[in-house]
Specification:
Rossmann fold, single chain, binds flavin mononucleotide, 6 strands
């Protein structure tokens, strides 16, 4: 993949950012990143009054859409459901005339309180995060978008500050690679979570 300079939209959803330990640090690491637009949905729409036209224009202006959120009840915080229901409109995002999002990429940057061992067959949560994201994967497919495996940070409860900083560095590295077209997509498509295999799916390191 060599489509350099992809524009990335990070749709960030955390309803209590003032209490966040992990996601706060993950987004702080993106602040100065060229080509990355950070859009905090709870800040923009504290009363869920989503501006559909604005959101659709943002989508049109970007190539890669990152849904960045903590896992809530094996899914997303509520505003991302409202966002999907309103923004991914018939005749625009899907349906015979709905081709606005054709070819764009969709991925999740997601944090879970539980550790990775819980997200496996026979584990406490039975399914991997990638499996739990199936409805969103199919939503992306219906919108003619390519769904990539998630960047998933497990075990946020009690995570040490140095571990959080390491995840933030990985997240930044992934977004730089996506922006610069340096992700090995064949390999990336096959993994459970992108950050488990960063060294093998990123061609070149950030200069
Ligand atoms: C309403 C709610 C639902 C949650 N559901 C889950 C869940 O299904 N699985 C899980 O592992 N953690 C769950 N958690 C824990 C959050 O994912 C965790 O607090 C978050 O990843 C921490 O990130 P932060 O430090 O940025 O807030 C839930 C937390 C809340 C408040």
């Amino acid at each position: 993949m060599n489509d350099a300079a992809n524009r990335i939209l990070v749709l960030f959803a955390h309803p209590a950012l003032e209490k966040s330990r992990v996601n706060r640090v993950l987004i702080e690491g993106l602040a100065d990143l060229r080509g990355v637009t950070l859009h905090d949905l709870y800040e923009a729409y504290p009363d869920f009054g989503i501006d559909v036209g604005r959101e659709q224009r943002l989508l049109l202006d970007h190539d890669i859409i990152v849904f960045h959120h903590p896992m809530f009840w094996y899914s997303t915080p509520a505003i991302l459901k409202e966002w999907q229901d309103l923004v991914l409109a018939h005749g625009w995002a899907y349906g015979s005339d709905g081709t606005a999002l054709l070819g764009k990429r969709w991925l999740h940057a997601i944090t879970t309180g539980a550790r990775e061992v819980a997200y496996a067959a026979g584990g406490h949560n039975e399914y991997t995060v990638r499996e739990l994201l199936r409805p969103l994967e199919q939503t992306a497919r219906l919108c003619s978008m390519e769904f990539l495996p998630p960047f998933a940070v497990h075990g946020t409860l009690g995570m040490r500050p140095d571990e959080i900083r390491a995840h933030a560095a990985d997240y930044r590295r992934l977004l730089v690679a996506l922006r610069d077209g340096q992700l090995d997509l064949e390999r990336a498509r096959a993994v459970n979570r992108l950050n488990a295999e960063l060294d093998s799916i990123i061609g070149r390191r950030e200069a």
